[in-house]
Every structure is written in structure tokens, then in C-alpha cells.
Write a structure and sequence with these properties.
It is built from 16 helices and no strands. It has about 325 residues and is mainly alpha-helical.
Length: about 325
């Protein structure tokens, strides 16, 4: 182990912010100039890899914990960025940018959001690799937080990877278009990749926190490590209240309703013609028996009281779209 290099501050927060801003603005410049949105998610994943390598190299702390946590961060980022790049190359475009691709400030807003996402979510590994934590000393690898971290990370990566593969296979298997995917993990959770993503970041935080849990850090260093909680919490808030579940649930419900009522604008089924397919009924049945996030057997989920589904399992009213709600909103 060599001597750590101090850059701007003892936690590497400033240098990682500057590197992240540079990476993302470069990505924006390329994407805007060539009207090319295929590199957006890839640029985010690459940014995490750069920060992990940079902080590990600067910090010169090559203990098992630092190496494993850095490696786990890079593996997660490479898998996520690689899969999303493969998907957008396969489909030909990223539908998220259809309405903002040609508007400078709206498109820039996405990249600024990605700066915030990358920097905040990378805080656990950034602080762990920093001179402040290195100077405090570390316990031997194998503490309870290390074990929990490995279990959470491995389970999350497995869930995320398997569910992505299952959805890809479903879309390419010629399954009926009027049925929502209910194969494998999708029969137990409406959004298994999001559940996997959340527990991955809880795992990375658990791996990074051992020096503080074992009382090796004090003062500002302890606070900086605890501040790494922003990573899993921000991930949860992002997926539960912003760009994850809310942006997936409503469009999917609308899609299946329109498949059953192609000639009727969103309105209560009883006020329009008879359904032309069973798509809407199939989707309502799937939704009623499938947990929004935490994987659960359909029979168990269906039997749970509504308040448990809403408060414990976070199946919030904001996720539900029905033609009746749409009609009431327009009234």
C-alpha cells in the first residue's frame, strides 16, 4: 500500500464531482451535436467505472474491502450500462428522448440529472477509498456489514440480471400481445429489476460502512461515511417516485386499456363499446395479484389487506391508472 494522494478535499468528493461533470457534459455535447441518444445510459455506467478506478488508485488502499467494493461497483455499472446500450441498439432509439431530443435545455436537463445521480450514488465508494477513511484504519474484512453487503449485492444483481433476460426473452418469443409478462420473477413482482437495483445499492453501502460501524472513524470522517446513505435512499426515491415505477405503471395500464378499446378515448368501460380483446382484463388480473416491487407469491399478495400493500409493500395509489380516474380528472 502506497501513500494516498490528496486532491481538493480529504474525501474525494470535489474531484469526483468535477470528473462527473466533465464526463456527462462531454456525453451531452456528443449526443446533442449528432442527435444521438444511444450513449446516454452507457455514459452513466462508464462514469461509475471511472470514479471507482480513480478513487481506488488515488487512495492507494488496496485492502480486500476497498477492492471488492470497487469491483462490485464496476461490475454493476458495466452490466447495467451494457444491457441498456444493447437494448437501445436493438430497438434503434430511446423513447424517453422523443420529446426532448431536439430541445437544447430539456435534453441538457437529462444530463444534469445524470450528473446528480452518478455523483450521489457513488458517494459510498468515493468516501471508502478516500485518505480520510484510510487514515482511520479498517477492520479485517469479514465483518457483519461486509457479509450483509455481499449478500444484498449478489442477490440484487442476480434479480436484476435474470429479470432483464426474462423480459427480453418474453418480448422475442412471440407471446400474445394482450398479456403482460408474468414469467419467472415477473409473476412475483411487477418491477423486479427496480427491486434488484435498490438492494444492490444497500449492499454497496453496507460493504463501505465497516470502518464506521466498528468505531474506527470519528468526526467528519464518520459523518462522511454515514452520508453515503444518500446512495440507496436516493435510488429508492428515484425509482419509487420519479423515473422508475411511476413512469412505467401508467403508460402500461393505458396501453392495455387501449388494446381492449382501440376506438374509445380513455373513459370508463361501461360508457364505451364492448372490449375487442381481453387485454385490459388480463392486465387488471395481473396487477391485482402481483406485488409492485418486493417479489411475493401471487396467492400471498392477493390475500394481504389493502393497507399492507400500500404502506408496507409501497403499492401506492399514484401508481394506479383506471379509465374512471382519467374521466374524473378531466371532469
Amino acid at each position: 500500500m502506497g501513500h494516498p494522494t490528496h486532491v481538493l478535499d480529504q474525501y474525494y468528493l470535489s474531484i469526483t464531482l468535477l470528473v462527473t461533470v466533465a464526463c456527462q457534459l462531454l456525453g451531452f455535447a456528443i449526443a446533442w451535436t449528432f442527435k444521438f441518444d444511444k450513449i446516454t445510459d452507457f455514459t452513466g455506467g462508464l462514469n461509475f467505472i471511472i470514479l471507482s478506478i480513480l478513487t481506488l488508485s488515488l487512495g492507494q488502499e488496496f485492502s480486500a474491502r476497498n477492492i471488492i467494493t470497487s469491483l462490485f461497483t464496476m461490475l454493476w455499472a458495466a452490466r447495467l450500462g451494457g444491457f441498456l446500450l444493447f437494448r437501445v441498439l436493438k430497438t434503434g432509439r430511446d423513447e424517453r428522448f422523443d420529446e426532448i431530443r431536439t430541445t437544447f435545455f430539456k435534453f441538457l436537463g437529462f444530463w444534469i440529472g445524470q450528473i446528480i445521480w452518478v455523483w450521489l450514488v457513488s458517494i459510498p465508494i468515493t468516501v471508502l477509498n478516500s485518505p480520510a477513511v484510510t487514515a482511520s484504519g479498517q477492520p479485517r474484512f469479514g465483518t457483519a456489514s461486509d457479509i450483509f453487503g455481499i449478500i444484498f449485492w449478489a442477490a440484487g444483481l442476480l434479480i436484476e440480471t435474470v429479470s432483464d433476460i426474462q423480459k427480453y426473452n418474453w418480448r422475442n418469443s412471440g407471446k400474445p400481445k394482450d398479456r403482460h409478462i408474468d414469467a419467472g420473477l415477473w409473476g412475483w413482482s411487477r418491477h423486479p429489476p427496480y427491486f434488484g437495483e435498490i438492494i444492490i445499492h444497500w449492499g454497496l453501502w453496507c460493504l463501505s460502512i465497516a470502518p464506521t460501524v466498528t468505531s474506527r472513524t470519528h468526526g467528519g470522517t464518520r459523518s462522511a461515511q454515514l452520508a453515503g446513505l444518500v446512495s440507496p435512499l436516493f435510488t429508492m426515491c428515484l425509482l419509487l417516485f420519479a423515473s422508475g415505477v411511476p413512469t412505467a405503471e401508467v403508460p402500461v395500464a393505458q396501453k392495455f386499456y387501449k388494446m381492449s378499446h382501440p376506438d374509445v378515448e380513455e373513459q370508463p368501460p361501461h360508457s364505451g363499446p364492448a372490449p375487442s380483446t381481453a387485454a385490459w382484463d388480463n392486465y387488471r388480473q395481473y396487477r391485482a395479484q402481483t406485488s409492485v416491487l418486493v417479489p411475493l407469491p401471487p396467492k400471498l399478495y392477493r390475500a394481504l389487506p389493502g393497507w399492507v400493500k400500500r404502506t408496507v409493500l409501497l403499492d401506492l395509489p399514484m401508481y394506479e391508472w383506471t379509465p374512471e380516474k382519467e374521466a374524473a380528472k378531466r371532469a
